[in-house]
Amino acid sequence: MNRGYLVRRAFYAFVTFLIVLVLNFIIPRLMPGSPVQYFANPKILPSIEAKLLTQRFGLDKPVWDQFLLYITGVFRWPPDLGVSYTYYPAPVWSVIMNYLPWTLLLVGSATVVTAVVGILVGIWIGSKQGTKTDTVVTSVSLFFWTMPFFWLGAILLWFFSIYLHVFPAGGAESTNLSGMPILNQVADIAEHAFLPGLTLTLAAFAGYSLIMRNTIVEELGQDYVTIATAKGLSHRAVLFRHAARNALLPMITLIGLNLGYVVSGALLVEVVFSYPGVGWLTYQAVLSHDYPLLQGLFLVLSVAVIIANFLADVVYSFVDPRIK
Amino acid sequence: MALLEVRGLCIDYKLQNRYLRAVDNVAFQIDEGEVLGLAGESGSGKSTIAHSILKILPRSARVSGSILIDGTEVVKMDDREARAYRWKVVSLVPQGSMNAFDPVITIGSQIVESIRIHRNVDKADAWRRTRELFSLVGIPEGRAKGYPHEFSGGMKQRAAIAMALSLNPKLVILDEPTTALDVVIQRQVLGLLARLRRELGISFLFVTHDLSVLSEIATKVAVMYAGRLAEISNSETLFASPRHPYSRALIHAIPTLSGDLSLVRSIPGVPANILNLPPGCKFHPRCPYVFDRCRKEEPQLLHMDDGSSIACHLFDRREKNGGE
Amino acid sequence: MRLPRDRRVLVGISILGFFTFVAIFAPFLTPYGPHQVSGPPYSSPSFQHWMGTDELGEDIMSQVIFGARISLTVGFSVALAATLIGSLVGLVSGFYRGAVDEALMRLTDVVLILPSLPLAVILAAYLGPSVQTIIEVLTVTGWPLVARVVRSQTLSLRERPFVDAERVIGAGNARIMFRVIIPNLLSLIAANAVLAITAAVVGEAGLDFIGLGNPSVVSWGTMLYWSQNLNAILRGAWWWMLAPGLCIALVGLGAVLISIGIENIFNPRLRGR
Question: ipTM, 2 decimals?
Answer without folding.
Answer: 0.81
